[in-house]
Amino acid sequence: MRHTLKRGLKGASLLTVLAVVLAGCTSQSALGWLPTERGLTNQVDRVIDLWVVSWVVLLIVGVITWLLIIWATVVYRRRRGQSGLPAQLRYNMPIETFYTIVPLILVLGLFAFTARDQTIIEAPLEDPDVSIEVYGKRWAWDFNYLNENVYLAGIQGQEIPGGGVDNELLPKLYLPVNQSVEIKIESRDVIHSFWVIDFLYKKDMIPARTNYWYFIPQEEGVFRGKCAELCGEYHSLMLFEVHVVSEQEYNQQIQALRAQGNVGRLGPEASVLQNLPGTGAFSESE
After folding, report:
1. pLDDT tens digit sequence for 41-63
2. Does 189 lie in the same domain as 115?
3. CATH classification at residue 191
4. Taking the model in full, what pTM does it have?
C-alpha cells in the first residue's frame, strides 16, 4: 500500500511539472519573457534569439544537473540498518574530464554567439538618415536633432498624487519609421545609461566620452525609456518616451520645435563638469 502511494505521488508530481512546462509554451515564452515584440527594430529579433537559445540551453543543463543530484541522493542514501561511511571514491578521470570539458564548450559557445551578435549590433550604419545627440543630465534628457538644427530640453518626471508620473511632461524623442538612426550618447554630469526598454538596448553615458548606437525602427508606436544607471536621488524619475512615427509626423514635430524657438544645439557648454579633458578649462602651461 505504501509503495503504491509513493508511485501515485511520483506520478502526480511528474504530471504537475509537465503541466507547468506546457503552460509556459506561449507566445511570451517564445520571447523569453522579454518586454518587447519581434520586429520593432532591425536588432530586436537578434537579441531575442540569442537570449532564448541561451536560457533554453542552460535550462537543459540545469535539469540534467538536478536529476543527477536527485538520483545520487536516492540511490546512495543510507539504508535502514546501515552504519558507518559508504565506500569512498577519490578519482574518476572520465567523469572529471567530462564535467570540465562540457562546461568549457558551453561557455565558449555562448561567448562566441554573443560576441558575433554584439559586433553586428554595434556596427555603424553608413550615412544614417537621422542623427540625434542625446545628453543625460540629473535627472532628465536633452535631445539635439542635428540634421534639423533643433533641440528639446527635457525635465525629470513629474509625480502626480496617488502615484505615477505625468506622461505628457516627459521628454519625447521622435524617430521616423524605417529610417536609419544614429544616436550620439553623452552625459552632462555623472554616469547615466540610455535605455529604450522595448528595443532591448542600453548604453552607458560617461562624462567626457561619446558612445554611439545605430539602428532602424521598423514599427510605429510609443516606447518607454529610462536611465538604467543609479545616478542620484531622482534616478527613478529620469524617464522619457520614444515615439516612432511616419516621416510626415516626424517633420511636423521638428517644425513644432522650430516654432517654439528651439533652434540650435544644447551642447557641452550646458554640462555641469567643465574641468574634464578636452573642455579647455586648463591651459598647457598649467
Report:
1. 999 999 999 999 999 999 999 99
2. no
3. 2.60.40.420
4. 0.80
